[in-house]
UniProtKB/TrEMBL annotation:
Keywords: Membrane, Transmembrane, Transmembrane helix. Residues 122-278 form the DUF4328 domain. It comes from Pseudonocardia oroxyli. It comes from the Bacteria. This is DUF4328 domain-containing protein. The chain crosses the membrane at residues 87-115, 135-159, 223-242, 254-278.
Amino acid sequence: MQCSRCGRTPPPGAGPFCPYCGRYLAALTWVAEPPPDPRPPLPVRPRFRYTGPPRYREMPRWGFPALPWQEPDQDGPAPAVERARGWALVLVPLLWTLAAVAFVGFAAEVLRYVLLVLSRDDALPGGLVAFSDAAVAFGGWASVAGSVGCGILVVLWCLRIREAAAERSGTVPARSTLAVVVGWVVPGLNLAVPGGVLAEVEHLGLDRPPGARPRPSRLLLRWWAAWGVSVVLGVVVFLWSFRSGVQALADGVLLHAALDLSCAVTAVLTVGVVRHLAALVEPTRAVRREILVSLPSSS
């Protein structure tokens, strides 16, 4: 074997070292191994062959009950967004009904005014007059009842939707519950407070900074204007009812027609506002993506 250091070939029987330079002639291979573990190795459990599903001599008493799936009971109160969603589901159909009834009242008032104009020159059929009176009475009382009922539900929905917006943004509502209710009910205050509360809800629902000034959307501004016109017309019609005279009664018919029309428009816009704000305070859902993976065809 030739020495790798000096390149000479040692004579036979020279031993494991080179007689010329003293290098170890055998090739060395260093292998790094981890130190032995002081703990004894764990016994390897044998894997038995699968022999099929288990078989019991009697019916097991554990497992799921033989019942259809049921949602788990909630220990605490429902979140504010769920309560607001529940009030909205009740409110929206009633608002559509109020809009239809108010429009019927508007048409009845217009018919009555036309009959008043025609009655100046000639007598009117009794059946047409009776139909007009019945339509006006139905539209008027149904509109009043619907407005009161929808007004109560709108206030309750507003309290829940502002709580949902506050939970979404992690803030505390700027107004107390009593202040919001008084702002919806008291004349004068109900021209500013309802729109301000809904603007705050929209502001928080859009994830804008809580300290910034709310900027209402066009939909909310249109609703605010229609709501203000309806409130003002309601007060005017109430005060006008104390006047007497033929011309005052004729003008009162036009005022009632305008009030019914504004009530119908406000109800339709309220439906849009309820849906708009309900969509803003809903929790964001994770977007799921479907990816089509093509596999190479085996030939």
